[in-house]
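Structure ticket #2291
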Amino acid sequence: MLYRRAKVLFKASRNSLGSRELAKALRKEGFQITRYRAIKLMERLKLVVTQRIAYKVTTKRKHSDAVADNLLNMNFNPVGPNQIWAGDVSYLKTGEGWLYLAIVMDLYSRRVVGWHISKRMTRDLVEQALTKAHNLRKPGKGLVFHSDRGSQYTSKGFRNLLSRLGCRASMGDVGACWDNAVVERFFGSLKYGWLFKVPQPTRTHMREDVARYMKYYNVERLHSANLDQSPIEFENSFRKVSGWS
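Resolution: structure written out below.
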Protein backbone atom coordinates (compact mmCIF):
# COMPACT_ATOMS: atom_id res chain seq x y z
CA MET A 1 0.00 0.00 0.00
CA LEU A 2 2.83 2.39 0.82
CA TYR A 3 4.46 1.75 -2.55
CA ARG A 4 1.18 2.18 -4.41
CA ARG A 5 0.32 5.47 -2.68
CA ALA A 6 3.85 6.81 -3.18
CA LYS A 7 3.60 6.13 -6.91
CA VAL A 8 0.12 7.68 -7.15
CA LEU A 9 1.11 10.83 -5.25
CA PHE A 10 4.31 11.22 -7.25
CA LYS A 11 2.47 10.77 -10.55
CA ALA A 12 -0.28 13.21 -9.49
CA SER A 13 2.41 15.84 -8.93
CA ARG A 14 3.70 15.17 -12.44
CA ASN A 15 6.93 13.77 -10.98
CA SER A 16 7.63 16.92 -8.95
CA LEU A 17 7.47 15.76 -5.32
CA GLY A 18 10.86 15.58 -3.64
CA SER A 19 11.55 13.28 -0.69
CA ARG A 20 10.54 15.92 1.88
CA GLU A 21 7.22 16.68 0.18
CA LEU A 22 6.48 13.02 -0.53
CA ALA A 23 7.08 12.13 3.12
CA LYS A 24 4.69 14.88 4.23
CA ALA A 25 2.01 13.72 1.81
CA LEU A 26 2.34 10.10 2.94
CA ARG A 27 2.27 11.05 6.63
CA LYS A 28 -0.92 12.98 5.95
CA GLU A 29 -2.46 9.72 4.73
CA GLY A 30 -1.46 7.93 7.94
CA PHE A 31 1.85 6.34 6.98
CA GLN A 32 4.68 6.51 9.50
CA ILE A 33 7.57 7.54 7.31
CA THR A 34 10.63 9.71 7.79
CA ARG A 35 12.32 11.72 5.09
CA TYR A 36 15.24 9.28 5.11
CA ARG A 37 12.87 6.41 4.44
CA ALA A 38 11.18 8.44 1.72
CA ILE A 39 14.57 8.91 0.03
CA LYS A 40 15.14 5.14 0.07
CA LEU A 41 11.59 4.54 -1.10
CA MET A 42 12.05 6.86 -4.07
CA GLU A 43 15.31 5.15 -4.96
CA ARG A 44 13.67 1.72 -4.86
CA LEU A 45 10.68 2.83 -6.93
CA LYS A 46 12.88 4.87 -9.29
CA LEU A 47 10.92 8.05 -8.63
CA VAL A 48 13.20 10.76 -10.05
CA VAL A 49 12.34 14.44 -9.80
CA THR A 50 13.07 16.74 -12.72
CA GLN A 51 15.01 19.70 -11.39
CA ARG A 52 13.53 23.15 -11.89
CA ILE A 53 15.44 26.02 -13.47
CA ALA A 54 15.11 29.64 -12.37
CA TYR A 55 12.97 31.63 -14.81
CA LYS A 56 11.94 35.26 -14.89
CA VAL A 57 10.27 37.40 -17.50
CA THR A 58 9.50 41.05 -16.88
CA THR A 59 7.84 43.83 -18.82
CA LYS A 60 8.97 47.44 -18.69
CA ARG A 61 6.65 50.25 -17.77
CA LYS A 62 6.14 53.36 -19.85
CA HIS A 63 7.94 56.33 -18.36
CA SER A 64 4.68 58.28 -18.39
CA ASP A 65 3.01 55.72 -16.10
CA ALA A 66 2.97 56.16 -12.32
CA VAL A 67 4.71 53.83 -9.88
CA ALA A 68 3.16 52.96 -6.52
CA ASP A 69 5.10 52.73 -3.27
CA ASN A 70 6.22 49.34 -2.03
CA LEU A 71 3.64 48.76 0.71
CA LEU A 72 4.51 45.06 0.96
CA ASN A 73 8.19 45.42 1.87
CA MET A 74 8.62 41.62 1.59
CA ASN A 75 5.86 40.92 4.12
CA PHE A 76 4.75 37.64 2.57
CA ASN A 77 2.77 36.46 5.61
CA PRO A 78 -0.33 38.54 6.35
CA VAL A 79 -2.37 37.42 9.37
CA GLY A 80 -5.59 36.74 7.46
CA PRO A 81 -7.15 36.28 4.02
CA ASN A 82 -7.91 39.15 1.65
CA GLN A 83 -5.34 41.51 3.16
CA ILE A 84 -2.52 41.25 0.63
CA TRP A 85 -2.81 39.90 -2.89
CA ALA A 86 0.07 39.62 -5.34
CA GLY A 87 -0.02 39.41 -9.12
CA ASP A 88 2.30 38.80 -12.04
CA VAL A 89 2.37 37.76 -15.69
CA SER A 90 4.31 34.95 -17.38
CA TYR A 91 4.81 33.57 -20.87
CA LEU A 92 3.56 30.12 -21.95
CA LYS A 93 4.92 28.60 -25.16
CA THR A 94 2.81 26.21 -27.27
CA GLY A 95 3.19 24.62 -30.67
CA GLU A 96 0.77 27.23 -32.03
CA GLY A 97 2.53 30.20 -30.49
CA TRP A 98 2.61 32.12 -27.20
CA LEU A 99 0.01 32.52 -24.50
CA TYR A 100 0.23 34.86 -21.51
CA LEU A 101 -0.94 34.01 -18.00
CA ALA A 102 -1.80 36.54 -15.30
CA ILE A 103 -2.50 35.36 -11.77
CA VAL A 104 -3.67 36.87 -8.49
CA MET A 105 -2.55 35.12 -5.30
CA ASP A 106 -3.74 35.64 -1.73
CA LEU A 107 -0.48 35.70 0.20
CA TYR A 108 -2.13 34.49 3.40
CA SER A 109 -2.85 31.00 2.07
CA ARG A 110 -0.84 31.10 -1.20
CA ARG A 111 -4.12 30.35 -2.98
CA VAL A 112 -4.51 31.48 -6.59
CA VAL A 113 -7.80 33.35 -6.37
CA GLY A 114 -7.90 34.68 -9.92
CA TRP A 115 -6.19 33.97 -13.24
CA HIS A 116 -6.62 34.68 -16.91
CA ILE A 117 -4.94 33.48 -20.12
CA SER A 118 -4.81 35.42 -23.37
CA LYS A 119 -2.98 35.43 -26.69
CA ARG A 120 -2.05 39.06 -26.03
CA MET A 121 -0.15 40.54 -23.09
CA THR A 122 -2.26 43.65 -22.64
CA ARG A 123 -3.75 45.57 -19.77
CA ASP A 124 -6.96 43.56 -20.21
CA LEU A 125 -5.05 40.39 -19.25
CA VAL A 126 -4.25 41.61 -15.73
CA GLU A 127 -7.59 43.37 -15.34
CA GLN A 128 -9.45 40.14 -16.10
CA ALA A 129 -7.40 38.21 -13.53
CA LEU A 130 -8.01 40.82 -10.84
CA THR A 131 -11.71 41.13 -11.64
CA LYS A 132 -12.16 37.36 -11.40
CA ALA A 133 -10.36 37.33 -8.04
CA HIS A 134 -12.46 40.20 -6.73
CA ASN A 135 -15.73 38.58 -7.87
CA LEU A 136 -14.74 35.32 -6.17
CA ARG A 137 -13.53 36.74 -2.86
CA LYS A 138 -15.43 40.04 -2.51
CA PRO A 139 -12.78 41.57 -0.22
CA GLY A 140 -13.35 44.68 1.86
CA LYS A 141 -11.87 48.07 1.12
CA GLY A 142 -8.17 48.62 1.66
CA LEU A 143 -6.79 45.35 0.29
CA VAL A 144 -3.19 45.72 -0.92
CA PHE A 145 -2.44 44.48 -4.44
CA HIS A 146 1.29 43.99 -5.03
CA SER A 147 2.96 43.63 -8.43
CA ASP A 148 6.09 44.50 -10.34
CA ARG A 149 6.41 47.66 -12.43
CA GLY A 150 5.30 46.09 -15.70
CA SER A 151 3.42 48.35 -18.09
CA GLN A 152 0.15 46.50 -17.55
CA TYR A 153 0.19 47.25 -13.81
CA THR A 154 1.42 50.84 -14.04
CA SER A 155 -1.12 51.82 -16.70
CA LYS A 156 -3.76 54.42 -15.89
CA GLY A 157 -6.55 51.97 -16.71
CA PHE A 158 -5.35 49.38 -14.21
CA ARG A 159 -4.83 52.01 -11.52
CA ASN A 160 -8.41 53.15 -12.10
CA LEU A 161 -9.65 49.57 -11.71
CA LEU A 162 -7.82 49.24 -8.39
CA SER A 163 -9.42 52.47 -7.24
CA ARG A 164 -12.93 51.34 -8.23
CA LEU A 165 -12.44 48.06 -6.36
CA GLY A 166 -11.15 49.82 -3.25
CA CYS A 167 -7.67 48.29 -3.51
CA ARG A 168 -4.33 49.95 -2.73
CA ALA A 169 -1.50 49.50 -5.23
CA SER A 170 1.96 48.33 -4.15
CA MET A 171 4.95 47.77 -6.46
CA GLY A 172 8.36 46.19 -6.02
CA ASP A 173 11.66 47.77 -6.94
CA VAL A 174 13.10 47.50 -10.46
CA GLY A 175 14.88 44.19 -11.01
CA ALA A 176 14.18 42.94 -7.46
CA CYS A 177 12.53 39.58 -8.12
CA TRP A 178 12.49 38.78 -4.40
CA ASP A 179 9.90 41.57 -3.95
CA ASN A 180 7.36 39.15 -5.43
CA ALA A 181 9.12 35.91 -4.53
CA VAL A 182 6.03 33.85 -3.68
CA VAL A 183 4.46 34.43 -7.09
CA GLU A 184 7.80 33.77 -8.79
CA ARG A 185 8.03 30.40 -7.05
CA PHE A 186 4.50 29.60 -8.20
CA PHE A 187 5.43 30.21 -11.85
CA GLY A 188 8.55 28.07 -11.40
CA SER A 189 6.49 25.19 -10.03
CA LEU A 190 3.85 25.59 -12.74
CA LYS A 191 6.34 25.51 -15.58
CA TYR A 192 9.18 23.27 -14.49
CA GLY A 193 7.18 21.02 -12.22
CA TRP A 194 4.18 20.61 -14.52
CA LEU A 195 3.83 22.20 -17.98
CA PHE A 196 7.29 21.44 -19.35
CA LYS A 197 6.96 17.73 -18.56
CA VAL A 198 4.45 17.05 -21.33
CA PRO A 199 4.11 18.36 -24.90
CA GLN A 200 2.00 21.50 -25.28
CA PRO A 201 1.01 21.29 -28.96
CA THR A 202 -1.92 23.73 -28.97
CA ARG A 203 -3.18 26.74 -27.08
CA THR A 204 -6.30 24.78 -26.10
CA HIS A 205 -4.18 22.02 -24.59
CA MET A 206 -2.14 24.60 -22.67
CA ARG A 207 -5.24 26.28 -21.27
CA GLU A 208 -6.62 22.94 -20.10
CA ASP A 209 -3.29 21.91 -18.56
CA VAL A 210 -2.98 25.20 -16.67
CA ALA A 211 -6.50 24.67 -15.32
CA ARG A 212 -5.51 21.19 -14.13
CA TYR A 213 -2.50 22.61 -12.31
CA MET A 214 -4.53 25.36 -10.66
CA LYS A 215 -6.82 22.71 -9.19
CA TYR A 216 -3.89 20.54 -8.08
CA TYR A 217 -2.06 23.52 -6.61
CA ASN A 218 -5.00 24.95 -4.66
CA VAL A 219 -6.54 21.67 -3.52
CA GLU A 220 -3.73 19.13 -3.14
CA ARG A 221 -0.25 20.67 -3.13
CA LEU A 222 1.11 21.00 0.41
CA HIS A 223 2.90 24.20 1.48
CA SER A 224 5.34 24.45 4.35
CA ALA A 225 4.16 28.06 4.88
CA ASN A 226 0.65 26.62 5.41
CA LEU A 227 1.74 24.13 8.09
CA ASP A 228 1.89 21.46 5.38
CA GLN A 229 -1.65 22.05 4.18
CA SER A 230 -2.95 22.96 0.75
CA PRO A 231 -4.11 26.57 0.25
CA ILE A 232 -7.79 25.64 0.49
CA GLU A 233 -7.22 23.45 3.57
CA PHE A 234 -5.35 26.29 5.24
CA GLU A 235 -8.18 28.72 4.54
CA ASN A 236 -10.72 26.22 5.84
CA SER A 237 -8.73 25.93 9.08
CA PHE A 238 -8.76 29.73 9.42
CA ARG A 239 -12.51 29.76 8.73
CA LYS A 240 -13.21 27.30 11.56
CA VAL A 241 -11.18 29.29 14.06
CA SER A 242 -12.21 32.81 13.09
CA GLY A 243 -15.67 32.39 11.62
CA TRP A 244 -14.44 34.05 8.41
CA SER A 245 -16.69 33.52 5.41
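Closing remark: The longest strand covers residues 84-94.
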